[in-house]
Structure formats: C-alpha cells, structure tokens
Amino acid sequence: MLHRPIDGTWFEFYHHSQAEGAYWNPACRAFTEEQWRQKLQEIRALGMEYVVLMCTSLAWEDRAESYFDGGPYPFPEDMVCKNPMPTLFDECAKLGLKVFVSCGFYGDWTRATDNMRSDAVRRRAFAAMERLYGDFGGSPAFYGWYLPDEVQIDGGFPEFFIDYVNDYRAKARSLAPDKPLLVAPYWITTARTDEAYVRQLERMDCEIIAYQDGVGIRNGGQEQAADYYAALRRVHDRAGRSALWADVEMFRFEGKAYQSALLPGDIERIEAQLNAASAYVDKVLIYQYQGLMCPPDSLAPCGHADAARLYSAYVSRLPRRPA
Description:
By secondary structure, the protein is of the alpha/beta class. It is built from 11 helices and 12 strands. The strands form 3 sheets. The chain has an 8-stranded parallel beta barrel, surrounded by 5 helices. A two-stranded antiparallel sheet has the order 3-4. Helix 2 (33-45) runs parallel beside helix 3 and helix 9 runs parallel beside helix 10. The longest helix is centred in the middle third of the chain and has 18 residues, at 119-136.
C-alpha cells in the first residue's frame, strides 16, 4: 500500500529525446486541444496538485521550436493543437492545478552546462520569461518557475550551478517576487551531506529542490533511496532555506540507457520508491504521468501499452481512491 499519493508530475508538449519519447511523442504532436485538456483532467483526477512544464521552447543542435506566441523559435508546424500554452493555463486554472513554468530549453538541451554559462542562452531565456509572465502571469495556475537544465551532484553542487540558479532567481523575482523556483538535480547517491553541503544550500537562492531518485536510470536501487533522502532531510533542515521535494523516476529503459524508449516501471519497484521518498520529503513529484501512466479508457491515449497497467496498479494501491 502506498503511504501517500503522488503530489505532482512533469509535463511536456514534446519529449526532448526522440529515442526516449518514441511511444508518446507522436501522440503529443497529434493531440487536439480537447485531448490536452483531457490529459490534465486525468492528472487532477489522481489527486495531483502540481504540473512541472519541462520546456516552453526546445532546442536541439540543428533545430528548435517554441510553444507560445512570441517565442524565439518557430512553432512546430506538425503540432495539431495550435495553442498549447493557453490551453494548459486555462485548463489548469479550472482544475486548480499549479504550474511550474519552464525557463528552457533555450540552447541545445544536450549541452546543459554550456547553457548555464551562456550569455546568449540567458538573454533568450530572460526574454521568454518576460513574455511568458506577461501573457500568463495573471493566471491562478501560474505557480512558479522551473530550470530544466540539470546538474549532476558530485559531492556537492558545482559553483557555476549556484551562480546560475541565483542569476535566474533574481530575474524571476524581478517579474514576480512571490513565485518560487524549482530545480531537480541528479545523482543523489554522490551527495556528501556534510557542513560544506549545508553552506551551499544556504547560498543557493532556490525555494524548492526536487532531487531525482535515479532509480529509473539504473532500473534499481530503490532499497537505498530512503537513506539518501533521510540524509538530504538532515542537511536541508540545517540550512533552513530550500524545501526538500523528490523527483521519482517512474520509468525504465526499453534497451540501453538514454538511447532507447522509456517504458513504465514495475509497480512493486515504484511503490517502494514512492514510499521511500515520502517518508522524508515535503512533496513527491514523478517523472512522469504523461506517457508512463494512462487510464485504459482515456480519450487521450499516450505511451506504451503498459501505461494502462501501471495506471490501474497505482490506483489500486492508493490509500484513498480518486473520485
């Protein structure tokens, strides 16, 4: 039995890795406005509260696209729904969902470190943040900001990452002082939760850190996840600044890691992950509902056939079933 339900999920208009998103990218391109609304309704029906939008624009080495009017890149011509961002905010406002709005990807998504250090990427991102907040900041669904360029923990955080977070947080605060910032670093297994780590947390101007549990990447290790989150709980409490959230990986790879499609993980593994995290963190987010979970009778089918099985298995383990 699950100790508590999932609090929120990542969400995307298109998965950045075409190999990983093989089972849901075609559906996302073909979704109508009503199907996007249906997908958000499904998320809310499970009792989730937060939606973390992975990207508002998406850049590869040889092309790029934006999902809102006035973005730096062209809107994808083959996307059936021509107003995905207004649809997202309108439906989330109706449902009471809270959206973390992405500040990326405004440089090639495979070059995260370069993006964090690039003045050109920063200028594009800041201009996009201004446009996005101008267009959607008045929506009750606009809850906060999210930085999708991820960093690897290596004992602690690289100093350039702290500078990057603080720079983007200052920009976000200039637009809306009350909107929190979320980041989701990876490799918690390497976190050296000592006094130096506490000092870094104290210097990072970030309201929420949702650590990736790394279990989906390794397709295992859920038994140790509770120990890692317990150690992070101790240093976060000492720093007294950023809230501690979890980013639980619901997937497994069909083949080689990072080079094959994402598939739903086994419910027994996922149940262990969710319970391990929920014992120590403030909120549990997942990567992700879309493509990895889907009601068998969904009007917006998306992902591998096993997504329906994972959905049903998750619902059966909820401490309180959704209405």
